[in-house]
Specification:
mainly alpha; two-stranded antiparallel ribbon; 4 helices
């Protein structure tokens, strides 16, 4: 199986909803396992066009590599920095490199715990591999600064309010 010729279309309700890390999203098969050992499981060889025509690694990321109106996809891929996430596998990411689920887990580089460090743990991961426990990521006190940085406060508050009313 190759990963070179897939076209996937997906319409996001809101780009801030992307990046959830959850056991329900784990992909357990030999090809994905092998792929994740070598490449970023979310961004390798992927390109996205947001609703405004901006060409990005992911619709949730802020950095644009041109607009579809005046830049071809081939030109965007060759721009400096476009491929910087492609080879960031889980063995390079802080905390993830110690996680037993790292090769079957998805990975988000759009939302990370430390926005100044592209190798920091995905923001929306609530798993702690050092104690083997899952917790709700959005209520973790250490993640509140990043939640505010990414403008997710309203979404998180709505999500947590819905959880308490169920």
């Amino acid at each position: 199986m190759t990963y070179d010729n897939f076209i996937i279309t997906h319409k996001f309700v809101n780009e801030k909803t992307c990046g959830n890390i959850n056991m329900d999203y784990f992909s357990i098969n030999h090809n994905n396992y092998r792929f994740s050992k070598n490449y970023n499981s979310c961004l390798y060889k992927k390109i996205a066009v947001d609703e405004n025509g901006n060409i990005k690694n992911c619709p949730s990321m802020t950095e644009s590599f041109g607009n579809i109106r005046d830049t071809t996809l081939a030109e965007a891929i060759e721009k400096p920095g476009f491929k910087k996430y492609w080879d960031i596998n889980k063995d390079k990411i802080h905390v993830c490199k110690d996680c037993e689920f790292r090769y079957i887990c998805t990975d988000c580089r759009a939302y990370v715990e430390d926005p100044d460090d592209i190798l920091s743990k995905p923001l929306k991961c609530g798993y702690n591999p050092y104690i083997g426990e899952w917790s709700e990521w959005s209520t973790n006190p250490l993640k509140q600064k990043a939640i505010d940085f990414y403008g997710m406060r309203e979404m998180v508050d709505e999500m947590n309010k819905a959880d308490t009313t169920e």
